[in-house]
Amino acid sequence: MLTQLHRLTPLILRRTADLAQHHSSSTICAQSLQYCEYGEPGDVLQLVEVSVGEPKANEVLVQMLAAPINPSDINTIQGKYPIKLPLPAIAGNEGVAKVLKVGDNVKNFKQGQRVVIVENALGTWRTHGNLAEHQLMCVPDKIDLATAATLVVNPPTAYRMLKDFVPLAQSDCIIQNGANSAVGQLVHQLCKAWGLKSIGVVRDRANFDELKTYLRLLGATEVLTEEELAHKDVDKKLCKLASPRLALNCVGGKNASDIAKLLAPKGVMVTYGGMSRKPVMVSTPALIFKNISFCGFWITRWMKEHKAKPDREKMFADLLELLDQGKLKGVKHELVPLKDYKAAVTAALDIKGLVGKKYILDMQC
User: Which residue range or ranges hold the Enoyl reductase (ER) domain (predicted)?
Assistant: First the structure.
């Protein structure tokens, strides 16, 4: 009996080794940025290792390549965003990845393809993960890494606000504050591509002339400071332009009220942010005598309501075509290795300079 056991021991060890090797080959040790409580990103984020197994039948195993740090990411970690995930949670809402393996029932993706994540709150600040097929969209390899990583939030926001609220025709005019923000820069580029006039409003600053030149190169027809916007003679400065039919507001407060005063009768103001943390004040004459409309826009809600709909497909097709034609370009950015995440999230909270720089986590470093 003892002799038989000795004979079996090598076989048992070989089988155990085979099983261990099979297990290790089907499991990836991934890194992810997690938070177990809400707070300032630099304080609560932790880089941890997690095991990622084989994709299920309808899943795709991806290797994340890059993921931006957006204001919505910061607010989510702080607990100030409408979406609150069960904790602990992996941070990040947007990013570009490479397909490593697909589940048995996956039809639209194959190994090696580049994809972007098109659903919110899936945790993109990680190196690997399994995602459902419908949560991904293929993008061409020729699009640079940073542009692909930032394709799903800001470009659709700019696109939809120009398309969905006012039927704009050639030479119609729009006005926006936060013109040097990521969305603001994209709005000016889209207006230029579509033959629209655009007025950009920015905060007063020492390097205003340099910023004005930059925004006009992007496509802005006119650029004003907040002080110029509030001046009683602002109409004279804009006399060569038709009254704006659409206003895009990401600031709020007095600045939003000053923009509303310039709207044409039956104009529309769309609010998509509130950087000043002050409410949008609506004047009675604007409502009664000019019949101005005020509404809000949130790209997360729009994407959720338009899953697998033709207008979403057309939007991304249009944006990709404009990128290919060179009529649309991404904002200034800096790629930061994942291990340096603390410096990146701190810098993202304190953006300075001519225009807002987008910090993008590089998962390949």
Answer: 42-355
- If residue 64 lies in a helix (H) or strand (E), which one and from where to where? strand 59-68
- Is a pLDDT exceeding 90 seen at residue 10? no
The DSSP call for residue 280 is P
Amino acid at 346: T
pTM: 0.90
Residue 265 carries which side chain, given as an amino acid letter? Answer: P
Residue 4: pLDDT over 50: no
Q: What is the predicted pLDDT for the residue at 284?
A: 93
Residue for token digits 């490479």? 98
Catalytic residues: 81
Average pLDDT over residues 266-281: 93
Q: How many CA atoms within 13 Å lie on the side-chain side of 62?
A: 29
The pLDDT of residue 240:
87
Question: Cβ neighbours of residue 72 under 8 Å, at least 6 residues apart?
Answer: 81, 93, 153, 300
Task: Give the C-alpha separation, 246 to 259, whole Å.
Answer: 10
What domains, with CATH codes, occur in the chain?
A: 22-150+331-362 (3.90.180.10), 154-301 (3.40.50.720)
Local structure of 230: helix, strand or coil = helix
Contact assessment for residue 244 and residue 199, using Cβ atoms and an 8 Å cutoff: yes
Judge whether 138 and 112 are in contact, CB under 8 Å: no
Instruction: Say how far apart CA 250 and CA 248 lie, in whole Å.
Output: 7
The pLDDT-based confidence of 353 (bands split at 50, 70, 90) is low
Three-state secondary structure call for residue 347: helix
Mean pLDDT of the chain: 91
Report helix, strand or coil for 170.
coil
8-state DSSP, 233: T
Predicted confidence (pLDDT) at residue 278 exceeds the cutoff of 70 = yes
Q: Using an 8 Å Cβ cutoff, are 153 and 290 in contact?
A: no
Phi and psi torsions of 286, nearest 5°: -60, -35
d(CA 176, CA 215): 12
